[in-house]
């Protein structure tokens, strides 16, 4: 059976503080079209037949309020609401350890990427089925420079080889678990899940996604997300 047709577990990480957003309320609870960002994200996966369960990882003080949201919005695939860790990678590991053992495949997704489409998720799952490890990504449009001390440019990597990495990131569950356990044992902390698998020397491939799968990070992302949601509501795109 193709992995894209099998049952998947999804770890949704939403335990961050949203420092760059700078709001009193953490960004995953800000409203888009009158609904919390995290609920938009969960609804995307709830609606997909391929998904069997979701593990939702939130701030230690937020488990009760989020459990209430899960009930209110009838998010039946949420198997557990777990207290996260101090770094994204710690939160991922906590969720990953609670994915049902019978599931062969798992995806990790940022709770603050509410605009991901089912089409993009399926493309990532299909790529992981071929290579055991795949991430959604888009080719960068700008020229990227590495900048050193005193703002001096030290390198200009060839743009054709540069991709902006998104989530979901999809893996054979046993591979990702092994990678996270090794990273924890060695004290390695990366900024995405591909990095912990790359450290094992295993290939991680990219599935081309789309530029609308934004991570809500800074204040200007909010009106952009509102616009994209409104556009989709009008055109039925991204469903
Ligand atoms: N200890 C952490 C840190 C981050 N995340 C989650 O990882 C995702 C991507 O992280 P990012 O956008 O950096 O979120 P924050 O850490 O909240 O933002 P900032 O870096 O601006 O504080 C978010 O859904 C965030 O909630 C998490 O679950 N646990
Ligand atoms: C996983 C990620 O969303 C891929 O772009 C990103 O690396 C998260 O990084 P952040 O530092 O937590 O924003």
TrEMBL record:
Protein name as catalogued? 2-C-methyl-D-erythritol 4-phosphate cytidylyltransferase
Q: In which pathway does it act?
A: Isoprenoid biosynthesis; isopentenyl diphosphate biosynthesis via DXP pathway; isopentenyl diphosphate from 1-deoxy-D-xylulose 5-phosphate: step 2/6
Q: Which family, according to the similarity comment?
A: Belongs to the IspD/TarI cytidylyltransferase family. IspD subfamily.
Please indicate which residues carry the site annotation Positions MEP for the nucleophilic attack.
159, 215
- Kindly state which keywords UniProt assigns to this record, in alphabetical order: Isoprene biosynthesis, Nucleotidyltransferase, Transferase
Please verify whether the record's keywords include Hydrolase: no
Query: What InterPro entries is this protein classified in?
Result: IspD (IPR001228), IspD/TarI (IPR034683), IspD/TarI_cytidylyltransf_bact (IPR050088), ISPD_synthase_CS (IPR018294), Nucleotide-diphossugar_trans (IPR029044)
Q: Which species is the source of this protein?
A: Paenibacillus nasutitermitis
Q: Catalyzes what?
A: 2-C-methyl-D-erythritol 4-phosphate + CTP + H(+) = 4-CDP-2-C-methyl-D-erythritol + diphosphate
């Amino acid at each position: 059976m193709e992995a894209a047709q099998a049952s998947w577990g999804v770890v949704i990480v939403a335990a961050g503080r949203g420092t760059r957003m700078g709001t009193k309320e953490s960004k995953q609870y800000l409203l888009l079209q009158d609904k919390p960002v995290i609920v938009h994200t969960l609804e995307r996966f709830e609606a997909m037949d391929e998904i069997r369960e979701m593990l939702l990882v939130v701030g230690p003080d937020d488990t009760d309020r989020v459990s209430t949201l899960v009930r209110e919005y009838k998010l039946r695939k949420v198997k557990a609401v777990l207290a996260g860790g101090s770094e994204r990678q710690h939160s991922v590991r906590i969720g990953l350890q609670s994915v049902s053992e019978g599931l062969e495949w798992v995806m990790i997704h940022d709770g603050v990427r509410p605009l991901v489409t089912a089409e993009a998720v399926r493309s990532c799952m299909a790529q992981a089925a071929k290579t055991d490890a795949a991430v959604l990504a888009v080719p960068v449009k700008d020229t990227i420079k590495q900048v050193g001390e005193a703002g001096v440019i030290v390198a200009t990597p060839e743009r054709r080889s540069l991709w902006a990495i998104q989530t979901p990131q999809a893996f054979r569950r046993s591979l990702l678990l092994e990678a996270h356990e090794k990273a924890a044992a060695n004290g390695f902390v990366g900024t995405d899940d591909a990095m912990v698998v790359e450290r094992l020397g295993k290939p991680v491939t990219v599935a081309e996604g789309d530029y609308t799968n934004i991570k809500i990070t800074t204040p200007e992302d909010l009106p952009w997300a509102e616009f994209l949601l409104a556009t989709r509501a009008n055109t039925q795109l991204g469903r």
